[in-house]
Amino acid sequence: MKRENKRMLMLSVSAVLLLVPVGVAQAELRIDFSQTGGPVEAGFQGYFADNDQPDTFTAQDFTAFGTTITVKPSWAPDATPQTTDMMDRGNNDGITDHVDLLRDWIATDNRQPGDPMTLTISGLPAGTYSWLSYHHDNHMQRGVFDVTVTDATGSVTTTDIQITDTRTSGVVNFEDMARFTTTIVSDGTEPVTLVFHLHPPSSTQTSAQLMNGFEIALLHNPLAMLPSPADEATDVPRNVVLNWTPGGFAGQHDVYFGSSFDNVNDATNIDPIGPDKVYRARQGVNSYTVSERLDFGQTYYWRIDEVNDVNPDSPWIGDVWSFTVEPIAYPIPGTSITVTASSSNSANEGLKIPSTARGWMTAVYCTAT
Ligand SMILES: [Ca+2]
Ligand SMILES: [Ca+2]
Ligand SMILES: [Ca+2]
Fold first, then answer.
1. Looking at residues 242-252, what average pLDDT do you find?
2. In this structure, how many other beta carbons lie within 10 angstroms of the beta carbon of residue 334?
3. Residue 208 C-alpha to ligand 1 middle, in angstroms?
4. What DSSP element (H or E) covers 69?
5. In angstroms, rounded to a whole number, what is the distance separating the alpha carbons of residues 326 and 306?
6. What is the architecture, at CATH level 2, of domain 21-218?
7. Which CATH number does 225-325 carry?
8. Distance 111 CA to ligand 3 centre (A)
9. How confident is the model at residue 337 (pLDDT cuts 50, 70, 90)?
């Protein structure tokens, strides 16, 4: 369901961008990996370090999204200094576009231990972002790599990305150069990491995992996201509070909840509303306490539609999320349980059993002695 969610977000982007005035906020972080003192691409901020000098690959702060974003590369624990590359090729091979971005790159030189390289990005406000990174050498490196992105939705690995080069492959057009794109989601707290893993080199020309720079853009996702309980969560307590991160335009939230996927999926804001209906509430806060005590083992479905009465695109229909309440019986460690009781006990004296154990206690037979 998360996959589906991401796809829906991507589809909604083009419509949303039309609503965002250009230049209102610094809605992008553009980083050009460059040697210290080297040229920085127009419109980018420079991450600077010195080739083969691990101490210079520090956590560096950048301004974007109205806050401070920190970028920190790191390599495998056994990395040698010689693997921490920040190369500047100059422009001997005659590319003409975005020269200051492409001429220099951060890399793992896999002729020494160091793979994989991890890029840790901290401080991203909660939201959905696009990621675009460039992987081109205007000399002769052309290895293949995988990248694992870990964000608030989990980890996704993209495999077999082919680095492009100019000297051997003749790639000179910016549009033809290798890039990696994805969508990343920040919960506003945990860093986002990207782990770049080069396929084993077959020659000197495939020995570097390199990145010229990257761009992160806020997508102003209009949909509710990051549900809690998480989508498809199990073992959820019977008293549940629903939470979510609001979409970018939300003023209010329509809450739909029930034990039928179809009923929740099909409900609309012209249905009857109330705490005993599928359409539970229209409210301003991004949290909803389910009033009834839920059934053991039952799967429930819920949906948050984002509402903004002054926006003609409202409401933005959310995904249907689900969770399953804790089971009626937990497996009991061990093979047997001995219960003893005395016939001399008073009639109203009994075993005190916690509520979560009542289910299995109904199957225990006690014999007074
Ligand atoms: Ca540069
Ligand atoms: Ca090196
Ligand atoms: Ca660069």
1. 90
2. 5
3. 18
4. strand 67-74
5. 29
6. Sandwich (2.60)
7. 2.60.40.10
8. 21
9. low
Q: Of 110, 291, 267, give the one whose Cα is nearest residue 203.
A: 110
- Which residues, listed in sequence order, are joined to residue 148 by a DSSP beta bridge? 157, 195
Terminal Cα-to-Cα distance of the chain (whole angstroms): 55
Of all ligands present, the nearest one to the C-alpha of 138 is 3
Tokens describing residue 245: 């991160």
CB 169 within 8 A of CB 153: no
Q: Could you say which ligand is closest to the alpha carbon of residue 53?
A: 2
Cross-strand pairs, 301: 258, 322
DSSP class per residue in 325-342: EPPS-PPPSSS-------
CB 317 within 8 A of CB 279: no
Confidence grade of residue 187 (pLDDT, cut at 50, 70, 90): confident
CB 272 within 8 A of CB 40: no
248 backbone dihedrals φ, ψ, rounded to 5°: -70, -20
> What average pLDDT does this structure show over 103-120?
96
Q: Which residues, listed in sequence order, are joined to residue 31 by a DSSP beta bridge?
A: 45, 214
* CA 102 / ligand 2 centre spacing (Å): 18
* Cα–Cα dist 170/143, whole Å: 15
Separation between Cα atoms, residue 76 and residue 197, nearest integer Å? 10
- The pairing of strands 320-325 and 233-236 is parallel
- Reported as half-sphere exposure (CB side, CA atoms, 13 A), residue 318 has a value of 30
Burial class (CB in 10 A: 0-12, 13-18, 19+), 231: middle
Give the Cβ contact number of residue 300 at 10 Å.
22
Distance 108 CA to ligand 1 centre (A): 17
Ligand 2: centre distance to CA 145 (Å): 18
Cα(86) to centroid(ligand 3), Å: 9
d(CA 270, CA 133): 45
The domain ranges of the chain are 21-218, 225-325
* Ion ligand 1 contact residues with beta carbon within 5 A: 32, 34, 100, 104
Residue 31 Cα, ligand 1 centroid: separation in angstroms? 9
Calpha distance 52→167 (Å, rounded): 24
List of residues 6+ apart from 311 with CB closer than 8 A:
19, 249
Kindly report the average pLDDT of the chain as a whole number.
85
Place of tokens 């950048």: 62
